[in-house]
Amino acid sequence: MQTLVTDLLVTLAYAVVGVLLMGIGYALVDMATPGRLNELIWVDRNRNAALLLASNLAGVGIIVVAAIAASEDDFMLGIIGTAAYGILGLVIMAAAFLLLDALTPGRLGQILVEPEPHPAVWVSAVVHLATGAIIAAAIS
What does R_g of the chain's alpha carbons equal in angstroms? Predict the structure, then answer.
């Protein structure tokens, strides 16, 4: 029974770190978009903003899963590594977004608020997912 309780607490700790990292990811996407992200997605039903946010959250999730898997049953190292790799991933995702924005015509942030789906958002979403996968591969 003690093992079950310990495992549940460890799971809870990793979940808290993962959710906090996704919250930071949400805030970063919100900063990159003109207007309020929650209104764009939940009120205006903007698919561009929803796709970018979903890809960011999935990228963070990929990193968190890889960091947990690489922790090799060392809880302290695992939880610190998960937080550190998650923050690194978010920084790299933000840098990749800014680089893509600098190298392409128009402003990605402005494209995100357009009511019609835009192909550039798909490209940006794949950058988020690829970044998460690259970091996950580097962890393992």
Answer: 17
- Give the tens place of pLDDT for each residue, 32-48: 888 899 999 999 999 99
- Burial letters for 117-126: b for 16+ Cβ neighbours within 10 Å, e otherwise? ebebbeebbe
For 127, the 3-state DSSP assignment is helix
The mean pLDDT of 100-129, rounded to a whole number, is 90
Residues 6-31 have pLDDT tens digits of 989 999 999 999 999 999 999 999 99
Helix (H, G, I), strand (E, B) or coil at 116: coil
What single-letter amino acid sits at 68?
I
Query: 98 phi and psi, to 5 degrees?
Result: -65, -40
Q: How far apart are CA 49 and CA 30, in angstroms?
A: 9
* Residue 107 identity (one-letter amino acid): R
CA dist 16 and 77 (Å) reads 16
Phi-psi bin for 72: left (phi > 0), alpha (psi -120 to 50), beta? left
> Where do the domains of the chain lie?
2-139
